[in-house]
Hints:
By secondary structure, the protein is mainly α. The chain has one domain: MetI-like (MetI-like fold, Orthogonal Bundle), CATH 1.10.3720.10. It is 70% helix and 0% strand. The chain is built from 15 helices and no strands. Helix 5 (84-120) crosses helix 13 (220-243) and helix 5 (84-120) packs across helix 14. The longest helix has 37 residues, at 84-120. The two termini are 28 Å apart. The chain crosses the membrane at residues 21-44, 94-120, 132-151, 163-180, 215-236, 271-295. This is ABC transporter permease.
Amino acid sequence: MMLTLRRWRESDLAWSLGRSPEAWISALVLLLYLAMALLAPLLAPQNPFDVAALDLLDARLPPAWTEGGQLKYLFGTDGQGRDMVSVMLYGLRVSLLVGVASTLLSLVVGVTLGLIAGYAGGRIDNIIMRAADVQLSFPAILVALLIDGLSRTVLPRAVHEQLSLLIVVVAIALANWVQYARTVRGVTMIEKDKDYVNAVRLIGMGRARILFRHVLPNILSPVLVIATLSIGLAVLTEATLSFLGLGVPATSPSLGTLIRLGNEVLFSGEWWITVLPGLLLIGLVLSVNLFGDWLRDALNPRLK
């Protein structure tokens, strides 16, 4: 453990991180967001999903620092009397879960197809890349909307509500695999003709082992950069779907769901129900993008 930490401190990546205030500040913010999401049951003053703990008489109370607010509800309450701090912590948890899970799934699909296309070439490459080209002609949010709409048509309503979180993850992942596939394909076409690949091919190693044991470790840098930036995009896509009423249900709200619910009463004066989750969402996406920009520059050999 100590050896690993020492190697990290002596690495170029750690040196670059220390010289970039935007990078380490965004990293600290991301760690704070992650801690709040993981520790939501411990940090939340109230369980927003426990009906017995809710009081409709406390609905739509303003933040504590404004007139009519109560100290026990620091950021006020929503239309169901739920504490906004608690709801935002649990909503952050759902948004991060969807963002990370959909990014990992799209990474696995895109990297696998990109490796196969770049190494095999020929007809297989043409089929995969033409499918990618067709999908690129549609906006990612439109693809996610189409997949979510098809699931609502095929699945019974009760089943869809139970699987809504999984469906959103799959929809966002299938909408964002193309960028991984195209990037990995291009790098694989270069790597497959290098001496180390020819050497393991001569000793009879199978294609799958060559791709995932030897080629994949050498193309991880651009994949990591894309994945980091894609988390913010996935969170925004989920928020957009939830704002349109097609994302996760209101019973397990994400930040996008909270913004939609608050938008319905925004012009009635209950601004905190939509503004505060919106600020939390902005901070999350901004910190992810800043960290991703630093990682892209740090892993780019041309900038060293």
